[in-house]
Amino acid sequence: MTILVTGSAGHLGEALMRSLRAQSRWARGIDIKPSAFTDMVGSIGDRGFIRQAMSGISHVIHAATLHKPHVATHGNRDFLDTNVGGTLNLLEEAIAAGVASFVFTSTTSAFGAALTPAIGEPAAWVTEDVLPVPKNIYGVTKLAAEGMSELFARKSRLPVVILRTSRFFPESDDDPDIRNGYSAENAQANELLHRRVDVSDVVGAHLLALEKAPAIGFGRYIVSATTPFLPGDLAELRRDAPAVVERLFPAANALYAERGWKMFPTLDRVYVNERARRELGWQPRYDFRFVLDRLRERREWRSPLALDVGSKGYHEEVFAEGPYPVD
């Protein structure tokens, strides 16, 4: 069994390749950029390259994409060619190769404007049933690629699982208020409450999805750290998030104070992973409670895999106004 991993030079692609190699599983990494985890260099937009890369492949994890950070530096056509055209190439060649399962890495960014309730409204409780309202070409093309994947699952009986992952990158936030008000480590620990997941848990979800896809046929799942919140907390989270956190985790304030950290004043959304846990058997380890336990023990709270992959950035150049330009 050989697994094709697209985007093998990226955060998730490298994490997948590291994990598969550590398990002595056959994997072929492809990317437009050379790397220690890339076996074949080429573009997913090149049909001939994909046909060659698919030779001998039995499973596909499609993680390659143009991301939100590329919106200000790449044109709409670039997004269409990569995120939509590249996915179409992979789906068609996967069918031709007779692969047993296809896992497509999507994003919670696809929900777009549905993630931000009106002023005065409770925080959004985001499940797979929320109707996406894309805000930019990134969201539009990821939704289009999801739609094509579902079409191939229905029409060609290709077992497909779509994973809408929340944030797992280690780079500083593009929001200057967050970036200037919180250290990256502080902000990302906070986000594990409602909109972040460790890359080690993301890898685990992908490998389970590969295994379960033939039985599922088609499925779409949110992949985010398990939130401690319940729907009854949503109104207060929008008004006073620290009060909710302190009620659920009475020791959090003292542990945060030792680090000079602080909680976000409000939260506008909560990603819900219940379906992925129930149907995939996924058991994410790195949640907010894990962070507090590690802070108490004065130990690292991020996974060894996350530290090994590290920060990659999204562009060759460095931008003075932030980790990447915002359109």
UniProtKB/TrEMBL annotation:
EC numbers, comma separated: 5.1.3.2
Matching SUPFAM superfamilies: NAD(P)-binding Rossmann-fold domains
Pfam family, one: Epimerase
UniProt keyword Acetylation, yes or no: no
Name assigned to this protein: UDP-glucose 4-epimerase protein
GO molecular function: UDP-glucose 4-epimerase activity
Keywords noted in UniProt: Isomerase
Entries under InterPro entries matching the protein: Epimerase_deHydtase, Lipid_A_modif_metabolic_enz, NAD(P)-bd_dom_sf
Cross-referenced Gene3D superfamilies: NAD(P)-binding Rossmann-like Domain
Domain NAD-dependent epimerase/dehydratase positions: 3-212
Broad enzyme group: isomerase
Transmembrane domains' residue ranges: none
Record lineage: Bacteria, Pseudomonadati, Pseudomonadota, Alphaproteobacteria, Hyphomicrobiales
